[in-house]
Amino acid sequence: MKLKAWLIGACALSASLMASDAKAAPQILAALPMESGIELACSDGICAAQLTTYCLQRERPAPTMGAAYVPATKEHFTLVLTSTDGQEVRLPASEHMRFVENRGFMSVAASIELGRMKALGAQSAKIVVWEGASLIPVPEENDPNPLTEDEIAFVTNSLRTIGQDYVDHQPKAGSAQLLAQLNAALPSDGIVAANTFNGMWQNSIGDEIPLPASGAILESAEQAFEECSGRASTYMVGGLRRCLEFQHDNMIRGLNVEYWQNQPGS
Measuring CA to CA, which of 44, 102, 177, 239 is 20 to 30 A from 246? Predict the structure, then answer.
């Protein structure tokens, strides 16, 4: 009986600690730069782009599903609106878009309502992420361990600079971004046909790859695509999407571990 009571007490304490962690501010995230812009895809009245992100703070809890974020520096995220006649307007993305955790710390969805985009005079849009961009979680009431101004400043400046060397500028980071863009451009469901990475890219996006087309970046992306496709001639979109997400997240997770291991005091 004593053992049973001890186990019940231990489980209750564990649940209490987990609940406390869930209320604490989650990790500040770094957003990989994409200065050529990520096109917004529109569906069901929402236009969104998937940003590739990683965790800058190993000691804080990972964001829960749907956790809201905001740019640490508004100038690091630009919403580019294109009208029907091809005219472009650039606005601070933070004033018009929502940023929400999508898959752990490895992807954030940046979205705007289609109606709002149209009201701004745009037929299409993309979001530009600049070098050194970070996202901070929206504060919640009764947070037992809120982010302080000093903590935010240290993470988004000093630690973010370290992340540029160990994550942002690595070929696998570029490969992960290619996979994310390809995945976002695929149709929502059904079957697609293409037997190479380049063939799928051209069918879904076009000829131009918006990253420095170094051999290492393309080679890693192509290898990940081949593992997902099995070199078949047709693919079910749902299965291909999930596999590409796994490949993307696996690349970012590996780079994130290397960054953590090279943080000051690690």
Answer: 44
Centre a 10 Å sphere on the Cβ of residue 184 and count the other Cβ atoms it contains. Answer: 19
Q: Which domain holds residue 178?
A: 171-261
pLDDT above 70 for 263: yes
Q: Write down which residue in 114, 138, 162 finishes a domain.
A: 138
Same-domain pairing of 103 and 179: no
What is the per-residue pLDDT for 265? 63
Question: Where do runs of H (alpha helix) occur along the chain?
Answer: 2-23, 114-119, 149-154, 160-163, 171-185, 197-204, 215-229, 237-261
Length, in residues, of the chain: 266
Q: Do 132 and 186 share a domain, yes or no?
A: no
Label residue 8 by pLDDT band (50, 70, 90): very low
User: Rg of the Cα trace of the chain?
Assistant: 20
Across the chain, what does the average pLDDT equal?
86
Residue at 42 is within a domain: yes
Q: Is 154 helix (H, G, I), strand (E, B) or coil?
A: helix
For 5-116, strand residue ranges (E) read 29-31, 34-39, 41-43, 46-55, 68-71, 77-82, 88-92, 98-101, 107-113
How many Å separate Cα 45 from the centre of its chain? Answer: 21
Q: Are residues 31 and 100 in the same domain?
A: yes
Task: Work out how many domains the chain is built from and give that number.
Answer: 2
